[in-house]
Amino acid sequence: MELPHGDELKPVVCAICHDDVAAELASGPHGRLPADPRSPSAMCVRCHGTHDVLPARDPASATTPVRVTAQCAGCHEKESRAVEAGVHRGEHRVGCADCHRGHRVVAPADPIGQLETCGGCHKDQATQHRRSLHGKAAVQGDPLAPSCVFCHEHHTILAHTDQASPTAVMNIPFLCGRCHREGTAVSLQKAIPQQAILENFSMSAHGEALYEKGLTVAAVCTSCHTSHDILDHNNPASSINRNNVARTCMQCHGRIEEVHLKVIEGRLWEQEPHKVPSCVECHQSHKIRRRSATTEGAANRNCLSCHGKPELAMVRDGRSISLYIDEEAYELSMHNRTACAQCHTEVNPGHPERPCATITSRVDCGICHAEQVHDHELSRHGQLAEEGDADVPVCLTCHSAHTTQGHQFPTSPTFVRNVPELCGRCHRHGGVAAKRIDSEMPDIVESYIQSAHGRGLLESGLVVSASCIDCHTAHRALAATDANSSVNREHLADTCGACHRGIEDEFKTSVHWPGNVVTTKRLPSCEDCHSSHTISRVDKQGFRFTMMDQCGRCHEDFAKTFFETYHGKVTQLGSEGAAKCYDCHGTHNILPTDNPESSLSYWKRVETCGKCHPLAHRQFAGYLTHATHHDKDKYPFLFYSFWFMTILLVGTMSFALLHTLAWLWRLLRTREQWLPLKEAATGRYYRRFTSTQRIMHGVMILCFFTLALTGMTLKFSYMGWAVALSRVLGGFDTMGVLHRIAALTLIGLFAYHLQQMWVSLRAQKKGLIGFIFSKNSLMFNLTDVRQVFESIKWFFGRGPRPYYGRFTYWEKFDYFAVFWGVFVIGSTGLVLWFPEFFTLFLPGWTINVATIIHSDEALLAVAFIFTIHFFNTHFRPDKFPIDTVIFTGRVRADELRHDKPAEYEEFIESATPEELAQRLTGPASPKIEKAARIVGFTALAIGLTLVALIVFTMFFG
Q1: Could you give the 3-state DSSP secondary structure of residue 326?
Q2: pLDDT at position 90, please?
Q3: Which residues, 6+ apart, have CB-to-CB distance to 737 below 8 Å?
């Protein structure tokens, strides 16, 4: 195409008008390119075009950012590809001219220039960088200050999510490590508190997570220091400032309050961060080892420069208080890795006088021991402390200030064996706490020391034994009446179950566990049976007796019926081996009797009885343990047996007493008839009883008294006199042996007497009827019936004194009472002695019936012998105070003639001279008479004393 110009035009020179632009272009890299003489403005035309030069803001302009970038790519192909691979492509496209501004097109090399350039788009980051340590260093012209390009590079700026980017998480430590590692100019020239930062980080928990486990969520430098807003840790706005560290850490550790709940009280993180040690005070920055965030001016060594002097002290309220800290003891304490400033949080390293001058408050242990302090605040100790009570214990009462040792160390006051002594400082008898607590025990601590737990811990050295804190907890001790207390009865099973786990599981299945039974009564807890501070071993002497009282507190009716049984009676006399409540019902697994697993169920009752009675069988197990003779409908056999024996006893004693009183009245009215005979000093004696008869009577006295003393002691075992008498007799075991020996001897004597009667029967040749009803027989006959009425008439002055023979009706009654007693008491006694045998053919409840009959018949025998018989033979006025005829066998002839005229006359009339010489004799020797009186009076004293005790029991027992 030919131009319309005829002549060749001169080359266009843009510099003619744009001289300033030309000068700028010439100073840049493009100015160093060789110029074309024929076209001096060729470079201008390349970018701006020829005649269609438009402003860059015009979309049709050749110098729009997009077109410029494309034009630059014509020469700078490598750089263009780098930009296209980075973050400045696409919708975030950045043109070359955005960074290479003007015609000089030289990107700024200095940090400030780069900041200005990059800040055009990245305003927030630029602002942060300007105020950061790096930005301030750049402003000051520090050549070591990093620029944008130092971290992000020039054209190959990649997103931090790109693993190839230097700002990718995995590369951040190496990026920062260009400056912050040992040997770099920064580490050598700058006063940075941290040493070997990159090395320490790589060995830290964060570094291990990043490099060994490849966890890109692990914290890196920018996670804590931020990317651009890197400030000095003393700057309040710094992300690593003491007050901001927790918030910084919480970017990753989002549950920090919950995680540290048992260490630091959660609310303090946000509300009072100055009271909380910063994270780096425990979890040292860049390292795993604990170390204070800063040691400058507040390091332990600085504190100890003063506080390590023994003479350091202060005066408060007129008292000198030592401020000395034993460094050696501190190093051995649990806080040896805790810096002073972590507890004394108000310390200020910048204070001109001394860092601790700013401390005005006491140390708050709750900043690290939140759970313990919270528990203490809820405890009774904490409640009283809140009220201003100066006597209550606080942290330092139990834990020393600077020499605190762990409870696992024997030298620690909180070591388990030292806890009783520690608590005893206040709770021992006379202590400030003991004076306030209304306890049934005069000395709680001493009671504990003597208990099973105390002896196990302090004497046997069993550190697993329960101490004060095992039951009351270490910091949350509350009164037992408090519903939240660990020793409240609602929680006691759980508390004891912490050690006695298996027992707790058993107890939860029993009738005593709430919810297992429907009742309005209070159910027992561990303390009700085992007590609190006086817990004893179950095999310790006396424990089984204690349990009787414990069960009886709730089961009063059953306790009463139990003590009516042999088991209960010997228990009251001191038998620890006799069956107690839990021997039959179980201990912690007491179940209803209709439960097949119950030890008293139909299926297991024989087995339970068999623990003590190896020969036990089903009928034997039918014994009614808690039966009462007062329940006619439920236990008719017992009811009627009891009332039969009661009527027999009351009827017999009533008639006998009336007879005795009437006789006594008559004798007192007729003193002139018998008094001269009683006062006579000499005379012939009649031998009334043979030696055999006297010996038999003596044996019977010995047996009867033995049976009476041992039997009545058992019957009235609930009385103190019975317990004392039991001890005098050698205890319940010895009493049982004596009782059985006496019973067997008496039965043997009874058999011997029957044998004698058989011999006499054969010798007299009268036949059985004739022998039994002979004149001088001990069998009742018509004469006795007649003399009963004659005696009554005589008692009331309506007739003469009857003509009594050898044996009177009351003597025959005594004789047959022995027969009856030996048979009834002996037979029932054998049933009680051998219950397993007799219940083979008798029902089990016959043991209950035998018990009633045996007991009441014995009481009747004792009452009759020691009152009526004693009166008939010794206490009637004409014989008082004692009649020794049964001991010596001799009675004065004139006394016999008055007392038994029929016997005397019969003897005189029928006796041969030889019989007279044999039967009429002189008095017994003084020795025999004295011995007879000693034995007689002793027997009378014992009998009367026993009767008096029984009467006392009947009215007051």
Answers
A1: coil
A2: 66
A3: none
Q: Which of 758, 755, 872 is nearest to 804 (CA)?
A: 872
Number of H helices, E strands in the chain: 52, 5
Residue 738: Cβ-neighbour burial (10 angstroms; 0-12, 13-18, 19+): middle
CB atoms within 10 A of CB 425: 15
CA distance 689 to 775: 17
Q: How does pLDDT run across 371-400, given as a tens digit for each residue?
A: 999 999 999 999 999 998 888 999 999 998
By the 8 A CB rule, do 480 and 488 touch? yes
Mean pLDDT in residue range 542-547: 80
Residue 7 CB partners (closer than 8 Å, separation 6+): none
Exposed/middle/buried for 916, CB within 10 Å: 0-12, 13-18, 19+?
exposed
- Does domain 636-956 fall under CATH 1.10.1200.10? My reply is no
- The residue ranges of every structural domain in the chain are 391-622, 636-956
* Structure confidence at residue 418 as a pLDDT band (50, 70, 90): very high
* Residues whose CB is less than 8 angstroms from the CB of residue 758 and which lie 6 or more positions away in sequence, other chains included: none
Tens digits of per-residue pLDDT, 803-847? Answer: 998 889 999 999 999 889 999 999 999 999 999 999 999 999 999
**What average pLDDT does this structure show over 639-646?**
95
For tokens 């350039």, name the residue.
Answer: 117
- Residue ranges with strand state E in 684-761: 685-687
DSSP conformation class of 533: S
Q: In sequence order, which residues have a C-beta less than 8 Å from that of residue 668 and are 6 or more positions away?
A: 877
Per DSSP, 807 falls in state S
* 840 vs 183, more confident: 840
C-alpha distances (whole Å) from 686 to each of 357, 536, 760, 837, 884 are 119, 68, 22, 50, 13
Hey, is 320 helix, strand or coil?
A: strand
The pTM for the full model equals 0.66
Can you say whether residue 538 is alpha, beta or left, with left for phi > 0 and alpha for psi between -120 and 50 degrees?
A: alpha
Nearest of 798, 754, 802, 801 to residue 778 by alpha carbon: 754
- Note the residue count of the chain: 957
Q: For 127, phi and psi rounded to 5 degrees?
A: -60, -45
Pairwise CA distance, residues 612 & 567, whole Å:
11
Instruction: Give the model confidence (pLDDT) of 762-799 as tens digits.
Output: 887 777 777 777 777 788 888 889 999 999 999 998 99
Residue 629's contacts (CB-CB under 8 Å, 6 or more residues apart) are: 635, 638, 639, 641, 642, 852
Quote the radius of gyration of the chain (alpha carbons, Å): 57
Q: How far apart are CA 914 and CA 553, in angstroms?
A: 75
Let me know: does 38 contact 11? Beta carbons within 8 Å. Answer: yes
Q: Which two tokens stand for residue 158?
A: 């990649």
Q: At 821, which helix (H) or strand (E)?
A: helix 809-833
Cα–Cα dist 514/496, whole Å? 16
379 DSSP 8-state letter: S
**262: pLDDT confidence band, cut at 50, 70 and 90?**
very low
What pLDDT score does 260 carry? 57
Between the CA of residue 720 and those of 18, 780, 937, what are the distances in Å? 134, 42, 25
Average pLDDT over residues 235-251: 83
- CA distance linking residue 1 with residue 326, whole number of Å: 105
Residue closest to 210 by CA, chosen among 222, 201, 287: 201
3-class secondary structure for 886-912? HHHCEEEHHHHHHHCHHHHHHHHHHCC
Amino acid at 573: L
Residues 292 and 295: their CA atoms lie apart, in Å, by: 6
Residues 6+ apart with CB under 8 A from 224: 239, 240, 248, 249, 285
The overall average pLDDT reported for the chain is 85
Number of CB atoms found within 10 A of residue 563's CB: 16
Task: Look at residue 559 in the predicted model and tell me its pLDDT.
Answer: 87
Gap between the Cα atoms of 300 and 794, Å rounded:
117
Spatial separation of the C-alpha atoms in residues 547 and 530, rounded to whole Å: 8
